[in-house]
Amino acid sequence: MPALNLSTAERRAHRADAHHLNPVVLVGGDGLTPAVIKETNLALDAHGLIKVRVFSDVRDEREAIFASLCDQLGAAPVQHIGKLLVLWRPMPPKEKAERDDRKAGPRIVKIVSFSKSGNHRATVKKVKVFGNERVTPGGLIKRKDTKRVTPKKRPGE
Q1: 127, 113 in Cβ contact below 8 A?
Q2: Could you give the number of structural domains in the chain?
Q3: Is the pLDDT score of 157 beyond 60?
Q4: What are phi and psi of 18, to 5 degrees?
Q5: What is the CATH number of the domain that holds 71?
Q6: 86 with 14: CB under 8 angstroms?
Q7: pLDDT at residue 41, as a whole number
Q8: Cα–Cα nearest to 18, from 78, 92, 66
Q9: Is residue 77 part of a domain?
Q10: Are residues 124 and 60 part of one domain?
Q11: Mind listing the pLDDT tens digit for each residue in 97-126?
Q12: How confident is the model at residue 82 (pLDDT cuts 50, 70, 90)?
């Protein structure tokens, strides 16, 4: 796959987004192995924008690894600064599972109640909540009120 081309504005935006990221792929002394390429591909699928750290002191070798990764994975080269490489590839759309058979039913909810003094741990309770119930901000479970009908509107009387 050929590498993607980015405009200057797109590259600048991706550099800004990648500033706070930590490297997710590390290239060691063996260089660019099939395992490294596979992990880089998985990281690009999961994150889209990644940093790769190359543990090599030779700049030409790092540039070759950068170009090779971009060509093999169809990614865009964003930045090469020192031993860090920044790659970007659009994330594939996630497939949604069809769940027509899913129906409303009880669900498990965690209710966290914090202690009044800051010295104690919060207590966590797991509670089963049914479809006609809700959890209030105070942590209480309330049932939905039944629909009230006035005597005038009652049918059949």
Answers
A1: no
A2: 2
A3: no
A4: -85, -5
A5: 3.30.110.60
A6: yes
A7: 95
A8: 78
A9: yes
A10: no
A11: 666 565 667 888 888 888 888 788 888 889
A12: very high
